[in-house]
Amino acid sequence: MTGGVPDKPTATDATRPPRALRYQHVYDLVVNMIEEQGLREGDQLPSTAELAEIAGVSVISVRRALDELTRSGKIVRHQGVGTFVAPQRLVSEPSRPGALLDTLTSPGGDVELTTELVSMVVGLPSAKHAAALGIDAGQPVWEISRLRRLGSAPKVLEKAVLPLQLVPSLDETRIADGGSLYGFLSERYALTDDFVEQVFEVDQPNSWEREHLQLSAKVNVVRIRGISVTAAGVAFDSFQQTYPAREFLFYVSGNSGPRLMESHDNGPWSVRPLGAPPSAGDD
């Protein structure tokens, strides 16, 4: 036994995988090791040399596999210390009605995130926002940007776009203090989401997302764009949420409803400040 993990027979030449697939063989071996041995967050895995011996491949193949396992969020590596099972990812249920915090859970139960107000401005919606909300592109909207943190780590970056004709005023102090925006909308204007329509996109983060989520350009994010609709069929919120892809699992369940967005709706999704001239990127 090495590092708390039972010894495994090494691969022979007859069973050694083809050269092009050797790193994938190591990837699968580590995933199976975690699952079959019931390893938990923080448990140490065999060293690079030990994995190479177990799998019957080169250290180069093992390092590539570990790079892929790190990118997929299954392991974490600490220089000079070792390789460990990564923390379990947060679970997001984006189709569940309610505030963002109501849609997140963790293996240990509820998730306690803090909220930081990034900006709150009035501007003019892009054509896509306007079409989704059923308003004219010349009608002003609120754009509220917030960052959710777990401890000190940024986890979710979101924007909410609300028509001023439905939401003439907001309680900035309440929102800045971390109060629920959707609780305020329900209390003040009786705007509650009866269903939510959403589009998911896996992409590299833009500069705004990299800055606030503290990500490199090579890390993928899951970007969710959606519309919140009342029981009366009034669309009142056109939102975007950005998650670091490898830190979350997404669970979706629900019934179909009216199609307010197209599945390929990945064009400009922005708000132009009042008085600013249109830019070439605006739809």
UniProtKB/TrEMBL annotation:
<dbReference type="InterPro" id="IPR050679">
    <property type="entry name" value="Bact_HTH_transcr_reg"/>
</dbReference>
<dbReference type="Pfam" id="PF00392">
    <property type="entry name" value="GntR"/>
</dbReference>
<dbReference type="InterPro" id="IPR000524">
    <property type="entry name" value="Tscrpt_reg_HTH_GntR"/>
</dbReference>
<dbReference type="GO" id="GO:0003677">
    <property type="term" value="F:DNA binding"/>
</dbReference>
<dbReference type="InterPro" id="IPR028978">
    <property type="entry name" value="Chorismate_lyase_/UTRA_dom_sf"/>
</dbReference>
<keyword id="KW-0238">DNA-binding</keyword>
<keyword id="KW-0805">Transcription regulation</keyword>
<feature type="domain" description="HTH gntR-type">
    <location>
        <begin position="20"/>
        <end position="88"/>
    </location>
</feature>
<dbReference type="GO" id="GO:0045892">
    <property type="term" value="P:negative regulation of DNA-templated transcription"/>
</dbReference>
<protein>
    <submittedName>
        <fullName>Putative HTH-type transcriptional regulator YydK</fullName>
    </submittedName>
</protein>
<dbReference type="InterPro" id="IPR036390">
    <property type="entry name" value="WH_DNA-bd_sf"/>
</dbReference>
<dbReference type="Pfam" id="PF07702">
    <property type="entry name" value="UTRA"/>
</dbReference>
<dbReference type="InterPro" id="IPR036388">
    <property type="entry name" value="WH-like_DNA-bd_sf"/>
</dbReference>
<feature type="region of interest" description="Disordered">
    <location>
        <begin position="263"/>
        <end position="283"/>
    </location>
</feature>
<dbReference type="InterPro" id="IPR011663">
    <property type="entry name" value="UTRA"/>
</dbReference>
<keyword id="KW-0804">Transcription</keyword>
<dbReference type="GO" id="GO:0003700">
    <property type="term" value="F:DNA-binding transcription factor activity"/>
</dbReference>
